[in-house]
Each structure stands twice: as structure tokens, then as C-alpha cells.
Amino acid sequence: MKKSKISASMMCADLVHLKQTITIFESEKIDYLHIDVMDGEFVPNFGLGTDYIRGLRDLTDIPLDIHLMITSPEYKYKWLGIKSSDMVSIHYESTSQIQRALDRLSEYGCKKFLAINPATPIYVLEEVLDYIDGINLLMVNPGFAGQKIVPSTIKKAERLVKFLRDCGKEDIEIEVDGNITFENAKILRAVGASVFVAGTSSIFKGKLEEYDNNILKLRENISLR
Ligand code: DX5
Ligand code: ZN
Asked: Which of 33, 52, 72, 77 is found 20 to 30 A from 115 (Cα to Cα)?
């Protein structure tokens, strides 16, 4: 079973207290900062952009987990300042040339994750398993924080684990993104997920002073038994 990692969803972070938030995340050893990049076309929202990413790099060395909810990501990597210590998720649904898009991402040395929306079937992954390090399983329809999990995605996660095992690809990591409450995290850890996008459903609950306890509570729910 892979070590659990917490990826803090920065679209949920309070900009006024960003520095203090990052300080808490560094002391609590948060594994990644989840950056939702949105173009208003692939998803009906605009998210964090290139300037935000540049600013974060000046604030902290915590690696980024860049979630590209944009069309044709393969033409836009160069704007993002991707580092080899980062994870980058591109959406299967966002380009007609997904294998080429994954190949181009290889130039950055980062971990390559393929994201699929709740209604996208698992079998679409069949021909690209050799080109990815992980799968970002969207548990909500992407674009907004504070949504409720799409119920069918829990069983989908179970089928994904079986699918990867049947393909001899258990080394591919599973990230879960969207409404990862303390309870959903526990359930999904038991299923086999190992990267947990933590937003308003968990670590960003309440005030800044509560974040460290939220992180401890989430970590407890996803720790190895
Ligand atoms: C979903 C976003 C996530 C997440 C935010 O589009 O990619 O960052 O949902 O956290 P929650 O769902 O807990 O508010
Ligand atoms: Zn995301």
C-alpha cells in the first residue's frame, strides 16, 4: 500500500492569510499544494493562474500538484513553470491527442497524472497506462470547491483499483479530488487511493487556527493501518 499524501487545494486558501497558511502547511509537512488551473472553457470557472504559481514558488518549496482543467494543455505547459518535483494532471477529456500530450509533459520530468471526470469510463485509460504515473479520479464535476461527491465515484474507485491490478499496473497512484471529507478520505484510503486533495471538506474547515488540527484529523484517517 502506497504512503498517503495530502495535496492541499489552494483554491480554498484565504488569500489574506496565504503566508500564514503556507507556514502551517510547511510545519505539518503537507506533501503537495494542489493548484486548480481553469480556463472557463473546459470547466465553467476561472481558477489559479501562472502569476499565482510564480508567487507560490517565492513563498515555499512545497511541490505543486498542478491540476490542468484547460483545453489543449499540451500547448500551454511552457507557461506554468513546471518543476521535476511537481505532479501535473491533464484531463483525458481536454485534448484529442492525449498520448502526445503526455509525451510532451515528459520533457519536464514531473509526475504525469491523467485526470478523468465522474462520467468518463475507466476503460479510456487502457492505452495510456504505460505513459502515466498516476490517475486523478475526479469525485465531483470539476471546477468548483464545496461540491458534493458524485455517489457513483466511490464504486468507480474500487473498479479502478481492480482494473490497475488486472493490468499489472498497481504501481500507478490514485489521486482523489473533490469533496474529500474526513469520512470520504477514510473510505477511499481503504479502497486504495493514496493522494488526497484536501479542500473545504477537510483541512480548510473553520479558521486558520483550526487548520493544523484538521490536518492531523485527515492524516489519521488516511494513515496506514
Ligand atoms: C474540484 C477542485 C478541488 C476540490 C476543492 O474541482 O479541483 O480542489 O474540490 O475541495 P472541496 O471539494 O473539499 O471544496
Ligand atoms: Zn483539482
From this structure: 52
